[in-house]
Amino acid sequence: MFDQPTPSDVSKQNQHEVSDGPDLELLLSDEWNRPLRKRLLDLLRDTISPEKLPPLRLTSQPVDVGMLAGDILSLPWYRTVFTNIGDVISPETLPPLRLESRPVDVGELIGDQMSHMWWTSLLRSLADAAAPERLPALQLTSTPVDDPSFTAGTLQFPRWSSVISTPKVFLPDKPKPAYAPALARAAAPPPKPDPAEVEFVHALEADLKRDLRRSVFRQRLWVSLAALELLTLIYTSFWWK
């Protein structure tokens, strides 16, 4: 009979297997099981005399990204107005731009060309006609064709009529339709409006006019009260003693 392993041997084997790899702790730390009074004391001690840690050593280079979008949106409206005015009066002097790519000369942009006056394009056309720009020789990577029809200077194609082998058939033209003047038709009389619909439109128009009169009266009343209050404030601030 084979000897069966005891529980102690199994636990030792498991401990040996776990110790070979990195320790993986799936349980909560012991701090969660501490009493409440000890945790309060620890928090009080950290508040009064916090632990002094060594200075943080950064291995990356910080990048100034300016103000975050959330901070910009949280500013009041007058701060943005003053910032825009300050940027217009005294713009920020930025360091020179460092480009890592190789610049390519694409000539003048289309927007800049459209912004010029008409006589500049006229002068440029005359200058190109009088003294055109000398460009470097064109470098071709293709090889010439040895076809004699190309080298002779003219390229001739056969006519389509000489290629067709069937006899030619000319069909007669279709007869043109006779022109018949169209008779003018009498316009159909407009339909009579429904009396109920007409009455509804008149009632709606009367309600609208009444609402407009009331709104104009309220507007005049409030403007008169505001003007009277303004005159009273001016009188009391200068002549009231």
Overview of the molecule:
This protein is an all-alpha fold and 241 residues long. Helices cover 49% and strands 0% of the residues. It is built from nine helices and no strands. The radius of gyration is 48 Å and the shape is extended. It starts with 6 loop residues before the first helix and ends with a helix. The mean pLDDT is 77.
Features:
about 240 residues; mainly alpha
Q: Topology, please?
A:
Blueprint: H1 7-20, H2 36-48, H3 69-74, H4 77-89, H5 110-115, H6 118-130, H7 148-151, H8 160-163, H9 195-238
**Contiguous uncertain segments of 5+ residues:** none
Helix content: 40-55%
Categorize the overall geometry.
extended
Major beta sheet, specifics? none
Helix/strand class: mainly alpha
Radius of gyration: 48 Å
Strand content: under 5%
| Average pLDDT metric | 77
Element string (H = helix, E = strand):
HHHHHHHHH
How far apart lie the N and C ends? 122 Å
Q: How many runs of DSSP E, i.e. beta strands?
A: 0
Tally of individual helices: 9
Task: Summarize it.
The protein is mostly helical. Helices cover 49% and strands 0% of the residues.
